[in-house]
Design goal:
alpha/beta; Enolase-like, domain 1; TIM Barrel; 2 domains; eight-stranded parallel beta sheet; 17 strands; globular; binds magnesium ion
Length: 369
Amino acid sequence: MNIKNIEIYKLNVAISNPIRVTLGVIDAARNVVVKIITESGIYGWGEASPFAPITGDSQESNFAAAQQIADMIKGKDALAIDARMVEINGLTVGEPSIRSAFDMALYDIAAKAAGLPLYRFLGGERRELRTDLTIGWQDTVEDTVAQAQNILDAGFEAIKLKVGRPGLEDVAHVAAVRELVGPDFALKIDSNQGWDYPTAVANIKAMAAFNLEYSEQPLAAWDYDNLVRLRDKVDLPICADESVFDHHDALKLIRLGAADYLNIKLGKAGGIHTGLKINAIAEAAGAKCMIGCFAESRLGLSAAAHLAMARPNIGFIDLDSCYHFKSDPVRGGIRFDDKIGGLLHLPDRAGHGAEIKESALDPEKGIQV
Ligand SMILES: [Mg+2]
C-alpha cells in the first residue's frame, strides 16, 4: 500500500489553564499534524507536540523535518512500519515529536487496512483507562488547593502535582493537597528535573507521610547515577520521564536499577514503534510503565491511549493535555467521560479513530508533499 502524498500543517490551539513546570510554561499547543495518503485511498493522521526543553525540537523544526521525511517515504509501502520507522529514525536522532507524528499516521493506516481499532491491531483488548489530571506550579498553596478542589469536583481519582521548586518549598503544597483529598486518593509528584540529589532526598523524606504513588523525574535527565543512589535512599518508587526517550535509555535505566517505572511519551520515543520496545524492556524487568503526553490534541492522545489499552503493563495513565484546550480541532477519537472524571472512551472504529477537522486547518500554514 504505497504512499501517494503527505499533507503537513501547523496546528495552534490556545490553552485556558497554562501549566507551569520547572522547565517553563505550556500556554498553548504549537503542534504539527501530518496526513499520509496512500494510493488505495486509505489515509492516516499523526500529530507532533514539540516541547523544546525536553524534546529539543519546535514547531518550525518539526515542520521542516516533516518535509524531509515526507520526501523520503513517498512512494514506499505504508504497511511496512518497521522498515519506514527504521528509515525515519535513521534520518535524525533529533525531532522525536515529528517522527512520532509519522509513526502514528502509519499505525493509523495499518489498523484501518486491517479493519481494526488500533488497540486491537496491536493485539490488545478493551480495558478501562482513567487518566489523572495535572496541577502545575501555582503561586500559593491556596491556589494549589483550589486547583485540586476543581479536580475533585470533576470526579477524578488521581492527581499529578508538579513540584521541583527550590529547597523544601514543595512540601507545603503536597501536604495541603493530601489533606484535601484524603489519605487514599492516588497522588503522585513530578519534579521535571528540578531537584538535585540532596534536595530530592530531603523532599521525599519530608513527604514520607503523604502516601505518594511515586516521584517522577526528581533529578536531571542525564543523572542516572544519582537516580540509582536516590532509589536506594528513599522509600518511594522512582519513575523516569525525561531520562527515557527510547528503548536504549530504557535498557540502561533498568540495568542500572535507576527507576521503578518508565514514562513512555510518543513525542519522546518517536512513536508507538519505539514505545512498544520501551514497554517490552520494562515488562521483562518487572517494571510498570506510565503513558504521558506533551500538549497534544485528542489526535495524539488517541494514538497514545490505543497503545496503553493494548499493553496492560502501561498502568499509569497521564493523558490530560487537551483537557484545558479552548477549542477542539479533532473529530472522532478519544473523549473524556461527561460524568466520571478522567474516564477515557476510545471509539471502536478502525485506526486510532481521530482526525483533524478541516475547519481547524489553515491552508496557509500547510503544504503538500
Ligand atoms: Mg513528567
